[in-house]
Each structure stands twice: as structure tokens, then as C-alpha cells.
Amino acid sequence: ICEKCGKPMVIKMGRFGKFLACSGYPECKNTKPVPVKHNKSKISCPTDCGGYLTEKRTKKGRRFYGCSSYPKCDYATWTLPAETKKETGEH
To answer: Which of 4, 53, 61, 91 is the most exposed place for a label (fewest CB within 10 A)?
Structure first.
């Protein structure tokens, strides 16, 4: 449901993938990203903000790991920290 006008949100496909848009367009131009399922490893953010690292993609499709508390915490890295890879059993 759109927070601005109360109409249902619909999934649209844009230049950078799927997003939610208000069905009241063009009167209401509210949009937001489609909720993403976070990775199951729940690796804690190194900044101790209470969030965890999730796999994300740049606009060009490159993989990176960012904090689930974004924008409150803007921690991001191209690779998972070495100590967390050992904890999750990844190589």
C-alpha cells in the first residue's frame, strides 16, 4: 500500500530491475525497491550497528556486501571479511 496516497503498490520492471510503484501514477509518483530476501548467513556488520551483511548488486551488476541497516549504516565491501568466511564455512 502506498504510504503517500493509500493505493496499492505494483511491481514494475525498470532499467535496473524490479521496483514497486504506486498504481495511482501519474498523480502519485511514489516508488521504492522490491524487498530483497537477505542472505541466510546473518554475518554481523563489523561496525557493530546491529545490522548484518547482505549480498547486493550495483547498477552495473557487480556483487558487493552492504549493511542491512542502510542508510543508518553505510558499511559496504566487495568481499566478505576473512574471519566471517571461516564462521559460515565459505571458501
So the answer is: 91
